[in-house]
Amino acid sequence: MSTQLGRAAVALAWLMACGVVLAQPQEETVVVKQATELREQPGASRSLAALQADSSVTRMADRQGPWVRVRTTAGLVGWVHLFDLGTPGSAAASSGGASGLLRGVTGLFGKPSPTTVSTSAVGIRGLGAQDLAQAQPDTAAVTRMEALRATEPQARQFARDAGLAPQSVDPLPAPPRPASANPGAQQ
Q1: pLDDT at 145 over 90
Q2: Domain boundaries, position 65
Q3: What is the pLDDT of residues 23-52, one digit of tens each?
Q4: Quick check: is 96 in a domain?
Q5: What does the DSSP assignment read for 59-100?
Q6: Is 53 part of a structural domain of the chain?
C-alpha cells in the first residue's frame, strides 16, 4: 500500500513539475525580416535601437496587439511589430545571380530540384471589448496631423509649380438602380 502511495506521490510531483515548466513564459528565437526599430513601448514610442534585417532576436511571451516584446543578442529589451518578425527559415538569404544561373544549368543535365519558398503567416486579433473600453484619443497626433494640412491656395500653388493644369472631365453616369427583391413591388 505504501509503495502505491509513494508512486502516486511521485507521479503527482512529476505532473506538478511539468505544469510549472509549461506555465513559464515561452521564448523562441525569431528573425527580423526587414530593417526596423526596437521600441521602448508598443506603438509609436521612442526608438531604442535600429535592428537590421536578418538579425536574430528572442521573442518573449509578452504581446500587446500586433506588438511583441523581444530581447536582442546585445541584451536590449524592447518592442517590435509582429509583421517585422519571422521564423529563422523565413528570412532566407537572397541568392545571387551566379547561384541562380548554376541552378538553371544543373537543371539541364538532370532532374531539376523543386524550388522551396519559405512563407510565414501572422495573425493579429482585432480589438476586443476591453481594448475599446480602455481606448483613449491621441489628441497630440490629431494636432500634428492638422498642422500638416495644406490650404486650398497652397494646393493650387503646388499644382502650378508641378506643371499641372485643370482638366475638364465629363461626369460619370448615374449607377443603375438595384433591381427590386420583390418582383411584385411597384417602384
Answers
A1: yes
A2: 25-109
A3: 445 677 888 888 888 888 887 777 777 777
A4: yes
A5: EEEEEETTEEEEEETTS-EEEEEGGGEE-GGGSPPPPPHHHH
A6: yes
CA distances for 43 relative to 21, 38, 71, 121, angstroms:
31, 11, 17, 21
- Bridge partners of 50? 37
- Paired with 69 in beta bridges are 79
Measure the CA–CA gap between 11 and 52, rounded to whole angstroms. 47
**H runs (alpha helix) in the chain:** 2-23, 97-109, 129-134, 139-147, 152-161
The pTM score is 0.38
Looking at residue 61, which CATH number applies to its domain?
Answer: 2.30.30.40
Alpha carbon distances (Å) from 127 to 65, 66, 79, 122: 8, 11, 19, 16
Is residue 177 assigned to a domain?
no
Number of domains in the chain: 1
Beta-bridge partners for 79: 39, 69
Give a yes or no: residue 89 inside a domain: yes
The one-letter amino acid at 52: Q
